[in-house]
Amino acid sequence: MIWKISTHSHQPRSILCARAAPILKGFVSPEAELQWIMAEIKRLQQEKAYQIGDFALLYRHIMPYKDMISRILSSQRMSLGEITKEPITYFGNQIKYTTFHSAKGLEFKVVFIVGVTDGQFVPKDDWTLEGDELEDYLEREKRLLYVAMTRARDCLYLTYSRGQPSRFLEPIPTGYLKR
């Protein structure tokens, strides 16, 4: 279980974020989502003294985020590095970005999970899934999102656009996620 109540405080805390509950934030477009993330990274660097290499942006599907992240963050002269299968890409003083799968086993101080919009975790290649097959697929997708959420050591941000937040976040108790 990834949620617990701290015995030292009356405030609920998540083991996903040592200092505060994860933050869920919605936007009108993926571009607005990434613009806000860019501003939040700058704020965290100034106010909390995080280094550029402390940040990671994770996404489930490459489209539309991979190209947008590269374009928007690079236009602001932010050092950016895509994590690939090559271990050398895990390190360095740059903002990392990658898919949920590529982030397995890695840890970052601050993680932004983008595109946590309901309907984004449906089967892209087989729209005929139904019944138990669909339930099994959705359970795997939910577990994958939760694995991505545990990549954050200090702070976790979940962002979505053009819709509602993922139904996978509904089981998270009130107070454990800043909405």
Any descriptors?
179 residues, alpha/beta, Rossmann fold, six-stranded parallel beta sheet, two-stranded antiparallel sheet, 21% strand, disordered N terminus
> What share of residues is helical?
25-40%
Number of continuous helical runs: 4
Q: Sketch the major β-sheet.
A: 6 strands, parallel
Strand content: 15-25%
By CATH, the architecture is named: 3-Layer(aba) Sandwich
Computed structural class = alpha/beta
What would you call the shape? globular
The CATH superfamily is identified as: P-loop containing nucleotide triphosphate hydrolases
User: In what order do the strands lie side by side in the largest sheet?
Assistant: 3-8-7-4-6-5
- What is the name of the CATH class? Alpha Beta
Question: How many discrete structural domains?
Answer: 1
- Compressed to H and E, one letter per element, the order equals EEEHEHEEHEHE
> Which residues form runs of ≥5 with pLDDT under 50?
1-17
Query: What value does the Rg take, in angstroms?
Result: 16 Å
* Mean of pLDDT: 84
Tell me the span between the first and last alpha carbons. Answer: 20 Å
